[in-house]
Description:
This protein is of the alpha+beta class and 402 residues long. The protein has a single domain (1-402), classed as Beta-lactamase, CATH 3.40.710.10. It has helices at residues 20-32, 77-90, 117-121, 142-151, 168-181, 185-197, 228-235, 240-246, 259-263, 275-286, 299-306, 384-397, and strands at 11-15, 37-44, 47-55, 71-72, 272-273, 290-291, 294-295, 310-312, 322-324, 329-330, 349-352, 358-362, 367-373. It has a seven-stranded antiparallel beta sheet, sandwiched between helices. Strand 6 and strand 7 (294-295) form a beta hairpin.
Amino acid sequence: MIAPTALQAPVQGYCQDRFLSVRRAFEANFLESGEAGASLAIEIDGQRVVDLWGGVSDQETGAPWSKDTVSIVFSNTKPATALCAHRLAQHGVLDLDKPVSHYWPAFGDSQRRDTTPRMFLDHSAGLPAITDKLPRDAAFDWDCMVGFLERQAPLWEPGTRVGYHGLTFGWLVGELVRRISGMSLGQFFRQEIADPLGLDFWIGLPESEEHRVSPIIPAQPAATPRNAFESALLNEPDSISARYFVNTGGWRPAGFNSRAGHAAEIGAAGGITNARSMARLYGTLALGGSRDGIEILGLDALRSATRVSSATHKDACLLVPTRFGAGFMRNMDNRARGLDSACLGEDAFGHAGAGGSVAFASPVHRMGFAYTMNRMGPGVLLNERAHRLIAAAYDVVAQDLT
């Protein structure tokens, strides 16, 4: 263990000497970028080389972020949900390229009969938002949300366009998991992935764990729109972007810090965990999907899950260039155009979460990387805090290849 620093928001934990520059970058987020509370972890070759945490977990009480603090990681939940579907596919009970209606008959109508599970996973199914007004607290009622999606006409011909399914992803993929496995999404994830790997990661948090959750601090609205997405929210209430962001059935923002929100199995954005557990998950995937005799996915299934299967120069929802595998983000370096980016590395696959959290695997470096925080930052992908940490990590591991 390394001793706490003299920072206003002390950083604690473990860090190998060769990763001290990563620790310094983590500290810089507190000193220079307004970090409140956060965790950071890195695995290399299945070994934890960084496990840091610091800052304040609860702004009202001043409670520090501890080793076992957890928080909502927003869209970092999507790969966990996707892995459930990929395990079913590996077992031969889900065909990602067969019509969804084979498993879910409500999708057999003329507009959606060609929709496949892969389209759910790579954001091309045409269901990024629900156009009917959702009732209050609908997001916490699985059957209610599934019913709305069964009635929702696609906003484009499925498979012909890419638009981030920011919230609908979880109910679409999760309902397939439920129908095929007979278990809820959260139950399946615990049994098939989280428990075997020993992950402190929940899709639907038990009340017994509630005391460990760090409340989210929402980002302050900008005085003027900073990007096309924010402009659409302000000026185009009928746009896909605005419908996705506003019509959430009580999830945004009240659900972030509610017991109902934490308990609900919101498979697109409600996962609760910390960097240590996400780094272990991605550290396993970086090794090819197996570790210590535990297989999450076989190598062929993992390659199918993570290869780029949809990409666009202008995402119909996020309004920036995006690249997706079947449930995973791939590198989105839009800096040359001055747009929001998620610079994970060319070989990497993972996901960004609202406000700036991120986790990914780099097979080339056999690295699992994860960063979580409670103060949301600006933008629709990553902000300076995550990019600073990722760059510092790659500066270290790149030396292993020279």
